[in-house]
TrEMBL record:
EC number: 2.1.1.-
One Pfam assignment: RrnaAD
The keyword S-adenosyl-L-methionine belongs to this UniProt entry's keyword annotation: yes
Ranges where the Ribosomal RNA adenine methylase transferase N-terminal domain occurs: 15-181
Keyword line: Cytoplasm, Methyltransferase, RNA-binding, rRNA processing, S-adenosyl-L-methionine, Transferase
Taxonomic lineage from the root: Archaea, Methanobacteriati, Methanobacteriota, Stenosarchaea group, Methanomicrobia
Chain's role: Specifically dimethylates two adjacent adenosines in the loop of a conserved hairpin near the 3'-end of 16S rRNA in the 30S particle. May play a critical role in biogenesis of 30S subunits.
Name listed for the protein in its UniProt record: Probable ribosomal RNA small subunit methyltransferase A
Subcellular location: Cytoplasm
UniProt-annotated binding residues for S-adenosyl-L-methionine: 8, 10, 34, 55, 98
TM spans (from-to): none
Family: Belongs to the class I-like SAM-binding methyltransferase superfamily. rRNA adenine N(6)-methyltransferase family. RsmA subfamily.
NCBIfam families, per the entry: ksgA (TIGR00755)
Length: 259
């Protein structure tokens, strides 16, 4: 039976310790999303982190309030009963989280938007593989392009289902994510995100065709400007065949043109 709300709790003590010590959290403001029963929270507190944990499940919030009442009183742990897909994030330096897999994408984009020094995040293995799929290869998608534009991401641990209770049907990867300046100048980040999203909505089409289909969203004049500036050899490729620099050039070409 599928566990409710992605509730696969980490029981492997060695893995918990390795995750909590993957970043230097001592004295840092750490955001943990989905603390569950708090095994990682405990380890992070033991490493001297000042933790804020966001948990959706009210039963677990009650459990955590009891388990960590001393730390809450001492101000080293703050619990937020909320939905990490929607609620406001507090300022934080590092995020260490075993994410709910069904919301991995939304939460990752929100974390990157919020900004941080470093994140140690657990994902379903296939999701991690998509994050690091190189541009120009068939596994690449919107997630790969957006993550690789704004961060360096690398798998640092692989966990089998046996590390969890109940065991999930999938393998897990722990990734280290470090934000960076985009390697190619981007004139407008919102427009860039929109272009990347639209192009991958039509990943089987050429760039030119995808732009035309999306012209209602991107803007007809902007699409015309892109076609004028971007060389044919790029326009005739598919989104999975072009490089990070090309996405930046396409978005910048369209952004120059005010509708
Ligand atoms: C995979 S479990 C990890 C639990 C714990 N960190 C551990 O390793 O044992 C994910 C946790 O996220 C919580 N959760 C699910 N969706 C959430 C959401 N949208 N916002 C915040 N927490 C969520 C679940 O209730 C669960 O406790």
């Amino acid at each position: 039976m599928k566990a409710p709300r992605d509730q696969h709790f980490l029981t492997d003590k060695k893995a918990i310790e390795r995750i909590a010590s993957a970043a230097d959290v001592s004295g840092k403001r750490v955001l943990e999303i989905g603390p569950g029963e708090g095994p990682l929270t405990r380890a992070l507190l033991d490493h001297g982190a000042i933790v804020t944990a966001i948990e959706l499940d009210s039963g677990l919030i009650e459990y955590l309030n009891n388990r960590f009442h001393r730390e809450i009183r001492a101000g080293t742990l703050t619990l937020i009963h909320g939905n990490a897909v929607k609620c406001e994030y507090p300022p934080f330096d590092i995020s260490v989280s075993n994410l709910p897999y069904s919301a991995s994408s939304k939460i990752t984009f929100r974390l990157l938007d919020a900004g941080f020094e470093e994140a140690i995040l657990m994902y379903q293995k296939e999701f991690g593989q998509r994050m690091i799929a190189p541009p120009g290869t068939p596994g690449v998608g919107r997630l790969s392009i957006m993550v690789q534009t704004y961060a360096k991401a690398k798998p640092i641990m692989q966990l089998s289902a046996k590390s969890f209770s109940p065991p999930p049907a999938v393998q897990s990867w722990v990734m280290r994510i470090i934000p960076r300046e985009p390697p190619h100048p981007i004139d407008d980040h919102q427009f860039y995100a929109l272009v990347v999203r639209e192009l991958f909505s039509y990943r089987r089409k050429t760039i030119r065709r995808a732009l035309h289909i999306s012209s209602g969203v991107i803007g007809k004049e902007r699409v015309a400007a892109i076609e004028e500036i971007i060389p044919e050899e790029i326009l005739k490729k598919r989104p999975e065949e072009i490089q990070l620099a090309d996405f930046a050039k396409i978005a910048n070409a369209g952004f120059q043109k005010k509708d």
